[in-house]
Design a protein that fits this description.
alpha/beta, Rossmann fold, SH3 type barrels, Elongation Factor Tu (Ef-tu), domain 3, 3 domains, six-stranded antiparallel beta barrel, five-stranded parallel β-sheet, 9 helices
Length: 410
């Protein structure tokens, strides 16, 4: 009589431990593409990973006119920075490539920047650059090169979750926290990205650069708006969007016409200096109305707002919006990179995301980002965010308290 077949027992194979990039591979079998901007941070990332034994490939993006930028200090992704990245790669003995992304950068970032300013907004081009040219296009190149991950020199931390995905957290050095500029990173991108500097300070990074023999250890940090010569963004808008540059009235919130302006692109919400008004009282830009070509000004208290709406929302937190409780989610909201996250409630009303900042905020500007965290604590998890689309000032809220929220947006 034949014995019944049993289930064969497979030998237990021990799981390979994870390397420092949370991958089950030994470093020398792990290919890493490092986005090298030519600054000290990304240079240290490349050097750290090379020292740990990873197969490192450096890639630098040329994003705007090399000729105009070559003599500028504090620029990135052009001129001297490209040469610096090449020298660091040569010092480390790693392959290095320069990709000409000028046309992509112009279409995705510079043109969008001009459009937003002409519409009376205050855009953040670094966010758009990270979302498109860097974390979409460059990430695709990294995968084509057979890389296991793409690493950058941003100060942000990511960790693996039980479900196999990764979550984003504020870094150890909150003075260098770049989560405000990375909130639009999708879950797919986040799973492929690594940020080795998330647990150290800028001072530690510079010290490590000196230890590793990187000659640019004391190089100054790059400017935020890298493609704007001498910070004159209004000159750029006038060049790219001449039809949008039109004069108009400077109007007080109470309706009085106080003066004239030469174009709303010269103003931002919260601005006090340079208004050219002699009223005897301090006035601030409260709102920019592109349709009416008006710069609306008022006293400081008119800058206060508790409610805003978001567009182009990227959610990388737990749970889908349709499953949120009716009263919304308790979150922390950060409306400018220079400000701290503040307690808020987040609700989704159809296609509209509404943020109620519990203690209010001053000078909230459409076009800026509102980044959402799970708390106000150090090391908080980044839940996502969106572009500020509408701001309901407290003054307007009081005047139209009985009206539906959808009718109060402006």
């Amino acid at each position: 009589m034949k014995k019944p077949y049993g289930v064969a027992k497979l030998p237990i194979v021990p799981m390979m431990p994870l390397n420092s990039l949370d991958l089950p591979k030994v470093p020398h079998q792990t290919r890493v593409v490092v986005a090298m901007s030519g600054g000290v941070d990304s240079s240290v990332v490349a050097a750290m990973l090379k020292r740990e034994g990873y197969e490192v490939i450096g890639i630098t993006l040329q994003l705007y006119d090399h000729g105009e930028a070559i003599h500028r200090k504090g620029a990135c992704c052009a001129g001297q920075d490209i040469a610096d990245a090449q020298r660091v790669a040569e010092h480390l003995g790693i392959p290095h490539y320069v990709l000409d992304y000028e046309s992509r950068f112009r279409d995705a970032v510079i043109d969008a920047f001009a459009e937003s300013y002409a519409a009376g907004e205050t855009p953040v081009p670094c966010i758009v650059c990270n979302r498109t040219v860097k974390f979409r296009d460059l990430l695709s190149v990294a995968k084509d090169l057979g890389a296991d991950v793409l690493a950058t020199g941003h100060y942000i931390e990511t960790r693996a979750l039980p479900d196999g995905h990764r979550a984003m957290y504020r870094p150890a050095d909150l003075d260098r926290d770049q989560s405000y500029f990375l909130f639009a990173t999708t879950q797919e991108q986040l799973d492929f990205l690594r940020f080795p500097l998330g647990r150290q300070s800028k001072a530690e990074t510079r010290a490590l650069a000196r230890e590793l023999g990187i000659t640019i250890a004391d190089k100054p940090d790059s400017q935020d708006i890298c493609f704007v010569p001498a910070g004159r963004y209004n000159t750029l808008i006038e060049k790219l969007k001449p039809d949008a540059v039109k004069p108009g009235d400077i109007v007080h919130v109470d309706g009085r016409v106080l003066g004239r302006h030469e174009g709303i692109h010269n103003y931002t919400v919260g601005q006090r200096r340079g208004l050219g008004l002699a009223t005897g009282e301090p006035l601030f830009v409260v709102r920019l109305d592109a349709g009416a070509r008006q710069v609306v000004v008022g006293p400081r208290e008119a800058l206060s707002a508790h409610r805003l709406t978001l567009r182009d929302v990227n959610w990388i937190g737990d749970g889908a919006p349709e499953n949120w409780p009716p009263q919304g989610l308790e979150v922390a909201a950060r409306v400018r990179s220079s400000r701290k996250p503040r307690p808020a409630m987040l609700r989704c009303q159809g296609d509209v995301f509404v943020v109620d900042v519990l203690d209010g905020e001053e000078g909230v500007a459409p076009g800026q980002a509102c980044v959402l965290y799970d708390s106000t604590q150090d090391g908080a998890r980044v839940l996502g965010g969106g572009t500020i689309d509408g701001v309901l000032s407290d003054a307007l809220a009081q005047a139209a308290a009985a009206a539906p929220f959808a009718d109060q947006q402006h």
